[in-house]
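Q&A log
Question type: sequence-to-structure
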Amino acid sequence: MGMTIQKVKVPFNINYIIAFLLLLFLLMQFHQLLHHIAGGILCGKVAYLTFDKHHYSESLSESGYIIATIVGPLFSHYLVMWIGLFLLLKNRYNLLAVSLIFASLPVGRLAAVNGGDEKFYGSWICQLFGFDESYATIISLIITLLILLPPVIVGFKSIANKHRLIVFLSLLILPALFYFVFIFYPDHRFIVPQVVDSYESGKSAGLALRLFWGLPLIDILITVVLSILFFGKYFRYLVALDKK
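Response status: OK
Response body:
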């Protein structure tokens, strides 16, 4: 028996957009924090973390590196996207469900095949089964697509707005552009170099970039403030239309 995909009209008003972007930011911070915590648990020591970059301690074993790398996207973006898929199939919190799928940045996860966590999947499988390393990228791409496509397709079919394709492409592409311009670029341009220099040289950075358990103070403060803002004010705009 087939499942009915529930329909939802995405409201492009200021409150929803802010709620969506806060969700996007917090999911990525959760992703990075999972890397950080897993690496620390597996070797007993953390290195550093910024808004978009994590670095494991040199004492982390190869197997620990693999586990800590997989944990990040698996229990943040991928799990969240599939929760969104099942919520849509169950007709529960449909707007939240669509938001979970697209705030998980499926385009970003696909791009990571060429330079992020996902690029390692194919290499590890090639090493495990003795395949030629030249197949690593295509294997990573296949694995990533198998994870991403079901929730993205269901998310597309659930959109009830008049211009569904435009809304879909907006949800797919614009959040990734926002993340690159307002989080990825500033982090890698201004924060990462200073944190790396401080970590490697042992010199104390300025207060905003001083590390506490490997986390820069600015990262901690911004994440806490935006978490309070999201759950205290804006989360309701993701679920208000779906209340029974």
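Response note: Strands lie at 48-49, 54-55, 211-212, 215-216.
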